[in-house]
């Protein structure tokens, strides 16, 4: 019932008593209104006061009828368990005679354990009941009796199940040794055998994960190994394969070290999980592997392992949803589930109340909604029908609860230290009564070394040889053991608890690798910076020598460049004078050519002016001539009696074309004989081919008109009948020819005037051409000279740039040499100090293996101790460390991990200046766990507040 409140009252009890007395309660909303409740009966089940149970007031108990359930007699127990065991042994009749011996020995063992192993404040879980007795026989029944080849194997099975049920919960070696002696003595006495010979000295385990058939069989025997029975060393490889398979199938792989204790606990948890209604209560310190081993054992059994994800927003409703979904998976979906729950996840004791109900009854009251209940009833209908029961809500839900209890395995992990654990054992007895308890002992030395070897072997450091690694592993194990001893002394002398857990050991191992890498990187960076400085100084000395040689090489090059520059300047000067002369000549020739061009143009213009007078008539004549066609000419040629005008035109055409007339003599033989010139006949012949005639006329060479032709034409030109205006009326063709003849006649006189001018122009043009040739030659010479000067100027510029570059390099070299000399002279003293510091850093780099080990141990273990205990532990560690691990004599956590500049900054921000405070600050800053300061004077509080002020943290 509920615990007593501050005043010793139990209000829930008084509420129940009020109902018993008055058959109801007062309504809390309607003040003064009494609610009467009818048809309600109370059945109470409870143990007698004591053992954490409070007495119940007699005012309530007087309303009940008492029925006592005394301890079951041995005869009844013998009958119940004998019937069960007899059915199992019926398959092997040759072992039937051992039935009574098994029953009597087991009952006697149970009785002695209940009498001797009594619960105490430190052993509050030493509570035994008939469930524990039944678990012994339940474990035996897990094995197929047909696989029992001989009596020895049957005895081993019985021995194993007693060990698993009773021994696995014992807290110390003293109790375990007492139990081993008791069990072996009873086995030797009752079964008349040598228990030591049958059982041996090694751990004995049965399990089902070796055979493919998944049958419960012996799996470890150090003396005999077969395909299904392994030695302890071989078992590690088998479980490693399961671990690899688990890590391959999950997003959160586990880095487990399967030392012998871990293997033993895996076998124990595996045995619990394979049992129907098998629930485990794992007790041990944090970091001992309870949860990890449970996950691996669940994977071995192919069960789904579920664990709540706790957060600040996680509520009781979330908890109810999680546990409800797990139960429905186990009941409705018929999945094998492992519900893993740790005491660090307890936000409210109602969580344990729900688990207590699940362990006792397989159900949490009022957790399902209406639709969820319908889902449960539908899924259970087939199971109820197969069982031959009536289908109703009661039977359906009972089948569901049974399925949940068989499929859902609750594994609870708790730390057995403190009053909180004992109070929970009292308040929630199902944690002990309905669970198989497995006590996780402190790791033995072999386990500590195995874990250390696994973690430290991953460190990639060439300085850690195999021998040094072994020494480091032994040192880690020694640190852990020495701190346990120091904690016992700490408790005795100062009455202060310091719990040394595997978590501290794991922090030592993981922190060592991280700090070692960080410290070595820090040392290497410092050594690199100093080595770089020394290399710079050495290179500066070499550079000074090289620059001196370079300057010596540059001097003749500069002199040679100066001489080459002078020669080029002289050559350019001479070429420039020559270019000026050539340019003057070119200008003179250019002036003459310009003058000649002007004069020639004047002559050309004068001749053009004269020609322009005759050109219009000539153009009109040619145009009229072009207008003629063959028919026009043919028409003239066909005239039999040509008019006078036509005859005149034909005569002029013959004269211009130098066609001789035919002489015709009239009155021949007479004195008055007259010779007449006939131009018509040869003229008609000239017109015989009109096309040729027209072509000849259009392309007539008017420049070759002679004076004789002109003289012959003159009478015609002056003849009034030969005017175009008159000829136009006679013949169109002759009109055009007349115009053309007049134009030729006029052109002759114009040309006669222009021709001397053109001849003079031609001579002037010849002179101009010669002058331009001389000018072009002068220009070409000038161009060649200028190009030569330009090329020389480019070469001079390049030579000057080369000379300037040499001078710049010389100056730069002198400047650099000056700086290098000043640097060497200025750092002459530092060079010695840096060389010494680099040598010291190399030693520190080598000794970091041991120095960081001491510092990691201090972070993991020393912070709860006072300075005296710290010094004692560090001194003992250094003695052991000196045997095989390189380290710096006199090193301490502050000198190894501390930065004097940062420490000085902390002190400015309020950190006390004493050695212990500085050491605490260094250790806290390098720890991966949240620091918990015992700070009665609020010194750490002030320092931390000042430290984080710049981050705007209050």
Give a short summary of the structure.
Belongs to the dynein heavy chain family. With 954 residues, this protein is mostly helical.
Main-sheet strand order equals 6-7-8-5-9
Shape: elongated
Arithmetic mean of pLDDT: 82
How much β-strand is present in the residues?
5-15%
The low-confidence parts are 222-229
Count of individual beta strands: 11
Q: What is the rounded distance between the termini?
A: 45 Å
Give the radius of gyration: 65 Å
Percentage of helical residues? Answer: 55-70%
Major sheet attributes: 5 strands, parallel
Number of helical segments?
33
Structural class: mainly alpha
Coiled coil: 761-816
Subcellular location: Cytoplasm, Cytoskeleton, Cilium axoneme
Keywords: ATP-binding, Cell projection, Cilium, Coiled coil, Cytoplasm, Cytoskeleton, Dynein, Microtubule, Motor protein, Nucleotide-binding
Domain Dynein heavy chain coiled coil stalk: 529-876
Features:
about 950 residues, mainly alpha, 5-stranded parallel beta sheet, two-stranded antiparallel ribbon, elongated, dynein intermediate chain binding, nucleotide-binding
Description of the structure:
With 954 residues, this protein is mainly alpha-helical. Helices cover 65% and strands 5% of the residues. The strands form 4 sheets. A 5-stranded parallel beta sheet has the order 6-7-8-5-9, with helices on both faces. A two-stranded antiparallel sheet has the order 1-2. Strand 1 (24-26) and strand 2 form a beta hairpin. Helix 4 (99-116) packs antiparallel against helix 7 (173-191), helix 19 packs antiparallel against helix 29 (867-881) and helix 22 crosses helix 27. The longest helix has 126 residues, at 502-627. The protein is elongated and about 205 Å long. The chain starts with 10 loop residues before the first helix and ends in a 7-residue tail after the last helix. 27% of the residues are buried. Residues 222-229 have low confidence and may be disordered. Residues 529-876 form the Dynein heavy chain coiled coil stalk domain.
């Amino acid at each position: 019932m509920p615990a007593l409140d501050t005043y010793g009252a139990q209000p829930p009890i008084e509420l129940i008593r009020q109902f018993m007395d008055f058959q109801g309660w007062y309504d809390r909303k309607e003040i003064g209104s009494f609610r009467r409740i009818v048809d309600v009966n109370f059945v109470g089940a409870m143990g007698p006061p004591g053992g954490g149970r409070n007495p119940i007031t007699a005012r309530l108990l007087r309303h009940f009828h008492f029925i006592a359930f005394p301890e079951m007699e041995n005869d009844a127990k013998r009958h119940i368990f004998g019937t069960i065991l007899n059915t199992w042994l019926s398959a092997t009749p040759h072992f039937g005679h051992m039935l009574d011996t098994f029953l009597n020995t087991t009952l006697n063992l149970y009785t002695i354990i209940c009498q001797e192993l009594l619960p105490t404040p430190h052993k509050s879980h030493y509570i035994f009941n008939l469930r524990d007795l039944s678990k012994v026989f339940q474990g035996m029944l897990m094995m197929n009796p047909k696989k029992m080849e001989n009596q020895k194997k049957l005895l081993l099975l019985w021995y194993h199940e007693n060990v698993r049920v009773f021994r696995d919960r014992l807290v110390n070696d003293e109790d375990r040794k007492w139990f081993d002696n008791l069990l072996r003595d009873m086995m030797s006495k009752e079964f008349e055998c040598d228990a030591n010979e049958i059982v041996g000295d090694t751990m004995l385990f049965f399990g089902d994960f070796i055979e493919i058939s998944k049958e419960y069989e012996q799996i470890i025997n150090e003396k005999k190994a077969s395909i299904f029975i392994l030695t302890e060393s071989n078992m590690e490889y088998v479980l490693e394969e399961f671990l690899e398979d688990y890590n391959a199938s999950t997003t959160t792989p586990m880095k487990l070290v399967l030392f012998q204790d871990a293997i033993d606990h895996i076998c124990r948890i595996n045995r619990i999980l394979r049992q129907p209604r098998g629930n485990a209560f794992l007790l041990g310190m944090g970091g001992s592997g309870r949860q990890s081993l449970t996950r691996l054992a669940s994977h071995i059994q192919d069960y789904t392992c579920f664990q709540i994800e706790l957060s600040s927003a996680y509520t009781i409703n979330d908890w109810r949803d999680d546990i409800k979904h797990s139960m429905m998976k186990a009941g409705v979906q018929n999945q094998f589930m492992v519900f893993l729950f740790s005491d660090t996840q307890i936000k409210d004791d109602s969580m344990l109340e729900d688990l207590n109900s699940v362990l006792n009854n397989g159900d949490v009251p009022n957790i399902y909604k209406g639709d969820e209940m319908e889902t449960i009833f539908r899924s259970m209908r087939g199971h109820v029908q197969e069982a031959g029961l009536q289908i109703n809500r009661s039977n359906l839900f009972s089948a569901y609860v049974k399925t949940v209890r068989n499929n859902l395995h609750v594994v609870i992990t708790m730390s057995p230290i403190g009053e909180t654990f004992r109070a929970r054992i009292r308040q929630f007895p199902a944690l002990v009564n309905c669970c198989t308890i497995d006590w996780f002992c402190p790791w033995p030395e072999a386990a500590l070394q195995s874990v250390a070897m696994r973690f430290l072997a991953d460190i990639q450091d060439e300085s850690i040889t195999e021998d040094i690694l072994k020494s480091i592993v032994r040192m880690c194990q020694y640190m852990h053991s020495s701190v346990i001893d120091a904690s016992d002394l700490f408790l005795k002398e100062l009455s202060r608890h310091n719990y040394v857990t595997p978590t501290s050991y794991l922090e030592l191992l993981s922190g060592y690798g991280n700090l070692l890498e960080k410290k070595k990187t820090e040392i290497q960076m410092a050594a690199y910076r100093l080595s770089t400085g020394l290399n710079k100084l050495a290179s500066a000395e070499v550079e000074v020598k090289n620059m001196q040689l370079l300057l010596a090489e540059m001097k003749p090059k500069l002199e040679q460049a100066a001489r080459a520059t002078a020669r080029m300047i002289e050559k350019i000067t001479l070429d420039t004078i020559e270019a000026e002369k050539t340019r003057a000549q070119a200008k003179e020739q250019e002036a003459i050519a310009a003058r000649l061009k002007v004069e020639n143009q004047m002559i050309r213009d004068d001749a053009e002016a004269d020609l322009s007078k005759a050109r219009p008539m000539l153009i009109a004549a040619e145009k009229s001539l072009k207008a003629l066609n063959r028919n026009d000419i043919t028409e003239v040629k066909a005239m039999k009696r040509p008019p006078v005008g036509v005859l005149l035109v034909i005569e002029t055409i013959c004269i211009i074309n130098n066609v001789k007339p035919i002489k015709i003599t009239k009155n021949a033989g007479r004195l008055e004989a007259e010779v007449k010139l006939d131009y018509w006949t040869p003229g008609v012949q000239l017109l015989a081919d009109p096309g040729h005639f027209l072509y000849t006329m259009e392309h007539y060479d008017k420049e070759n008109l002679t004076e004789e032709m002109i003289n012959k034409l003159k009478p015609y030109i002056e003849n009034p009948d030969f005017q175009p205006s008159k000829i136009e009326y006679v013949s169109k063709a002759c009109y055009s020819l007349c115009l053309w003849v007049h134009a030729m006649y006029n052109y002759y006189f114009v040309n006669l005037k222009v021709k001397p001018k053109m001849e003079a122009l031609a001579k002037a043009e010849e002179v101009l051409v010669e002058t331009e040739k001389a000018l072009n030659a002068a220009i070409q010479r000038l161009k060649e000279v200028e190009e030569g000067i330009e090329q020389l100027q480019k070469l001079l510029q390049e030579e000057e740039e080369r000379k300037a570059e040499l001078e710049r390099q010389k100056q730069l070299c002198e400047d650099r040499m000056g700086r290098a000399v000043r640097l060497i002279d200025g750092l002459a003293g530092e060079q010695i100090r840096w060389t010494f510091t680099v040598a010291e850093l190399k030693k520190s780099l080598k000794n970091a293996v041991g120095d960081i080990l001491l510092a990691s141990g201090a972070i993991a273990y020393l912070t709860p101790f006072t300075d005296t205990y710290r010094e004692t532990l560090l001194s003992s560690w250094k003695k052991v460390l000196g045997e095989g691990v390189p380290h710096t004599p006199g090193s301490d956590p502050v000198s190894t991990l501390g930065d004097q500049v940062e420490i000085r900054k902390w002190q400015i921000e309020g950190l006390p200046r004493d050695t212990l405070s500085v050491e605490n600050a260094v250790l806290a800053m390098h720890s991966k766990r949240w620091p918990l300061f015992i700070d009665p004077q609020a010194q750490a509080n002030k320092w931390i507040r000042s430290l984080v002020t710049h981050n705007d943290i209050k």
